[in-house]
TrEMBL record:
PANTHER family: ATP-BINDING CASSETTE SUB-FAMILY B (PTHR24221), TRANSPORT ATP-BINDING PROTEIN CYDC (PTHR24221:SF653). PROSITE patterns: ABC_TM1F, ABC_TRANSPORTER_1, ABC_TRANSPORTER_2. This is Thiol reductant ABC exporter subunit CydC. InterPro entries: AAA+_ATPase, ABC1_TM_dom, ABC1_TM_sf, ABC_CydC/D, ABC_transporter-like_ATP-bd, ABC_transporter-like_CS, P-loop_NTPase, Type_1_exporter. It comes from Alicyclobacillus acidoterrestris (strain ATCC 49025 / DSM 3922 / CIP 106132 / NCIMB 13137 / GD3B). It is a multi-pass membrane protein. It is found in: Cell membrane. GO terms for molecular function: ABC-type transporter activity; ATP binding; ATP hydrolysis activity; ATPase-coupled lipid transmembrane transporter activity. NCBIfam families: CydC.
Length: 577
């Protein structure tokens, strides 16, 4: 019931369009129904060589009317129904984007990128087709059956009942029996398509690695295996569909034969004229037009409801709350006290009783091995992940009470994986400040030491970057990301492994640009490399979610703990003995 309530939420705003489309669909069926029946009457009367044209005049005019009106009603019905479907589709897509935006990338666990992409495309389309391919044909079929019953009853109740029995068997029992088998095939096909989508998206993003390790043949074999499985499933599905169509035609033919047997003793003796036989027979044929879409309607209901379940499952993941309000400029001290965090799928806490303070304009580094909780801590500080244990105060105000716009205004992030969008260089830099003038963009680009690189491009700041900015080196992408962060004027600059993909020379160039441009800002640097530790005001060492060491570089080196060992190892690997 909840699934249908969810569907009604999208359907209700368009109820008048739906009613109009259903009515037009019924009129289109009625026109076709009348066209076939009256055509039979016209042919029968013409075959008797009437003495005057008046005998066939009414059926002749009716055939013209039904023929023209059928096309008009069918076209108008398609226009109205697809207008509704596309309007509802746009609303569902907007809802899905907002749903994912509130949950990605941290809250949607257990779902692969290919699975989410499949939901965004195939499942949304399946919901759209629910009305066009399932609900509308079913509603028209019910109305059409009533029309057929009303038209055939005057020729004899047994004739009407025989037609109704044939319609029920062909339109209800046959699809119900076969749809069970096709549901299994459909479920298997959806899983295989989701896996195929996942493999293709992974290959596009990681083709360089696949090729570098010589795994092209293994990748193609896996893809061909899934393709063969999909082909087998599609062949079985198509075979069952052809079988259903054959059975439908058989039932239709048997029903017509039964009606003819019922008509035979009624001709003349019970008020059925010989010229009416063809008309009644074609009426029965036309009645089955309403039941013809029943098989695809049954199947579409199953596909659409499964899509609804998967879409609703995405919405069931916890939301990263968004607090409305205008952006405020907040700077000052940042105090973290007793902060703990535990992912639902993890047995041990990711952060455990973390406490520290960052003074205004200070530079603090958070170091530790992979999986020690560094990135999670940054995600909490920037509001991407919500905390429930402990306290984080910014200038005395609890971080959780700040509205989302203020959080985004306060923290500028340079992440480990910088994403550059396909578009102009200036637009990529101005991502957080779309209205920034070019002069300001050039200013921050110079501070980030990326200006000369941009000027060397064919069209300078108007050069269109390819997807993910592949024409830039790793160091250039990171410096462009730094310019993007500097443009926001955020008082806190948060950097998550910004040089993890850079060589030593580019790393040093990046940090020179960083320290020269970040004057007057509080800096929080998360890294497992020790390139600029001497310039940090404070260093936190995280291990298994807890702070195990803390102090300035010189003090931590004197302690001879994990930090000192890591620093010496880093220096040996970077500069040799």
């Amino acid at each position: 019931m909840q699934r249908w309530n969810w569907i009604l939420k999208w359907v209700a705003p368009f109820r008048w369009r739906i009613a109009l489309a259903a009515l037009l669909g019924f009129f289109a069926f009625g026109a076709n129904f009348g066209l076939l029946g009256v055509s039979g009457l016209l042919i029968s009367r013409t075959a008797l060589h009437p003495l005057t044209i008046l005998v066939v005049y009414v059926p002749l005019v009716a055939v013209r009317f039904f023929g023209l009106s059928r096309a008009a009603f069918r076209y108008t019905e398609r226009l109205v129904s697809h207008d509704f479907a596309l309007r509802s589709l746009s609303r569902i897509r907007v809802w899905l984007f907002e749903t994912l935006e509130q949950r990605l990338p941290f809250q949607v666990t257990g779902r692969t990128f290919g699975d989410i992409l499949s939901a965004a495309v195939q499942d949304v389309d399946a919901v759209q087709f629910l009305y066009i391919r399932a609900l509308a044909p079913t509603l028209v079929a019910v109305l059409a059956t009533c029309l057929a019953l009303a038209v055939l009853v005057p020729f004899g109740i047994p004739i009407a009942l025989t037609t109704i029995v044939g319609l029920v068997v062909a339109g209800l029992l046959l699809p119900f029996v076969l749809i069970r088998y096709r549901q299994v095939l459909g479920r298997r096909a959806r899983e295989d398509r989701a896996k195929t989508t996942e493999i293709l998206t992974d290959s596009v993003r990681g083709w360089r690695e696949i090729k570098a390790f010589g795994q092209e043949s293994a990748f193609f074999e896996r893809l061909m295996s899934l393709g063969q499985a999909l082909r087998t499933t599609d062949i079985r599905s198509l075979a069952s569909q052809r079988f259903a169509q054959s059975m439908f035609l058989l039932i239709q033919g048997l029903t017509v034969c039964a009606v003819l047997l019922e008509l035979k003793p009624r001709v003349d003796s019970r008020g059925v004229l010989p010229v009416d036989v063809a008309m009644v027979t074609l009426f029965v044929f036309a009645a089955f037009e309403a039941a013809a879409p029943s098989f695809s309607a049954f199947e579409q209901v199953g596909v659409s409801l499964a899509g609804v379940d998967r879409l609703r499952a995405l919405a069931s993941f916890p939301v990263t709350p968004s607090i409305p309000g205008e952006a405020q400029y907040v700077s000052g001290n940042l105090a973290v006290k007793g902060l703990s965090f535990h992912y639902a799928e993890s047995e041990s806490p990711t952060l455990d009783d973390v406490s520290f303070e960052v003074g205004h304009n200070q530079k603090i580094a958070i170091v530790g091995q992979s999986g020690s909780g560094k990135t999670t801590l940054l995600n909490i500080l920037t509001g991407l992940v919500q905390y429930s244990e402990g306290s984080i105060r910014l200038n005395g105000v609890e971080l959780a009470s700040l509205n989302t716009a203020t959080l985004r205004r306060t923290f500028a992030v340079v992440s480990q994986q910088t994403h550059l969008f396909r578009g102009r260089v200036r637009d990529n830099i101005a991502l957080g400040c779309p209205d920034a003038p070019l002069a300001r963009i050039v200013e921050v680009a110079k501070l980030a030491r990326i200006h000369d690189t941009i000027e060397a491009m064919p069209e300078g700041y108007d050069t269109v970057l390819s997807e993910r900015g592949n024409q830039l080196s790793g160091g250039e992408r990171q410096r462009l990301a730094l310019a993007r962060a500097l443009l926001t004027d955020a008082p806190f600059l948060v950097l998550d492994e910004p040089t993890s993909h850079l060589d030593l020379e580019n790393e040093q160039a990046f940090y020179r640009g960083l320290f020269a441009s970040a004057l007057g800002r509080t800096m929080i640097l998360v890294t497992h490399r020790f390139a600029v530790m001497e310039q940090m005001d404070d260093i936190l060492v995280l291990k298994r979610g807890r702070i195990v060491e803390r102090g300035r570089h010189i003090d931590l080196m004197r302690q001879g703990g994990w930090y000192a060992r890591g620093y010496r190892q880093y220096m040996r690997m970077s500069y040799g003995d």
